[in-house]
Amino acid sequence: MGLRPLLSEEQIQQRIREMGAQIDADYPSGTLYLICILKGACYFLADLSRAIERDTFIDFMGISSYGRGRTTSGEVKITKDLDISLQGADVLIVEDIIDSGVTLHYLTGLLNQRKPKSVRIATLLDKPERRLRPVDVAYVGFSIPDEFVVGYGLDFAEKYRNLRDICVLEPD
Ligand code: IMP
Ligand code: MG
Asked: How far is Cα of residue 122 from the mean position of the Cα atoms in its chain?
């Protein structure tokens, strides 16, 4: 399978700096709880958290709605829950990509039950054409067409996460 460059490391880093500044400007003072959705969003969390100047807490949540292939199973499963309480917290869910919206539709509902002060979503990539469930996304890095992408945390069967750029995975 071939890789076609879509977003360069420089474009990604520039956009994340803008997102961090926007997030700093939007929130009242206080600690922002960044919830990283494993595994894909771990690179984005690392860079976004350093683009934010206010105090942050980070925690990780494992969720799987995909098998090893390209298509959604429609099933959402928690594989690792948070260590910290969200009660009274400003929560920002940090995700790599929103596709059908099934994962985040489910997750925002779940986290809202934990009595946070607010819950918003920051995603690096969005494929709006593919939405099956409504999701209210506060911060989007890039809207992209309906193509399968890898790199910067995004995988195909666990491969390609460590690419610095984001590429479209093309069948030969
Ligand atoms: P959703 O529930 O369909 O919105 O699925 C979101 C999840 O699907 C993301 O967190 C990714 O793990 C995965 N995903 C969706 N599109 C892609 C893609 O183009 N490349 C790699 N993973 C993807
Ligand atoms: Mg994911």
From this structure: 6
pLDDT digits (tens, 9 = 90+) for 90-123: 999 999 999 999 999 999 999 999 999 999 999 9
Q: What is the pTM of this model?
A: 0.94
Residues designated catalytic: 99
Other CB atoms within a 10 A radius of the CB of residue 147 amount to 12
Ligand 1 atom closest to 105 (CA): 2
Compute the half-sphere exposure of residue 138: CA atoms within 13 Å on the CB side of its CA.
16
Number of residues written out for the chain: 172
Ligand 1 binding pocket mutation candidate from 42, 43, 60, 66 (most atoms within 8 A of CB):
66
Q: What is the pLDDT of residues 129-141, one digit of tens each?
A: 989 999 999 999 9
Domains defined for the chain, CATH in brackets: 10-63+78-147 (3.40.50.2020)
- List all residues whose CB is within 6 A of at least one atom of ligand 1: 40, 65-66, 72, 95-103, 148-150, 154
